[in-house]
Amino acid sequence: MRTFLPIFATQIFHRGPGIAATFVSMSGAGSVVGALGIAALGNVQRKGRLALIMLILLGIGVSGFALSPWIPLTCASLFFAGAAMMGVFSMVSSLVQLIVTNQTVSYTHLDVYKRQQPNRTDTFATARRPCQACASNAGWYAD
User: How does pLDDT run across 7-36, given as a tens digit for each residue?
Assistant: First the structure.
């Protein structure tokens, strides 16, 4: 959606980069407000239902943006869509983290690590040392 904001500003509203910047700003401000709103909610019950409601609200906001012939309504729709988008992303990320078990994550990391080092039998017995260039840039590598 943000990709099309300059196109909407020039082709639909026949304005310059100032309106495009306003559109991007409204979407960003809505994202910040949405993130703060979700953070203020804390740990809520029925995160899946809330994510679905936010996704529906995101669709309404994007539709309002696409169909709006008036700049103030477009700005309000972008603000609303930005807040809903951040709410959806936050809720879905939380749901994924809650659903995935530690055992699943451990096995996934173990498989990736074994594929990276197929000849090693003591995969977790010894720690991997970083390359010289990476470690010297980090400032902690010492022989």
Answer: 888 888 899 889 999 999 999 999 999 999
DSSP letters along 23-48, please? Answer: HHHHHHHHHHHHHHHHHHH-S-S-HH
Return d(Cα 76, Cα 128) in angstroms, integer.
Answer: 52
Return the amino acid letter for 89. Answer: F
Can you give the residue ranges of every domain in the chain? 2-99
From residue 127, alpha-carbon distances to 110, 118, 140, 142 in Å are: 14, 15, 15, 15
> What is the C-alpha separation between 132 and 134, in angstroms, rounded?
6
Strand, helix or coil for residue 14: coil
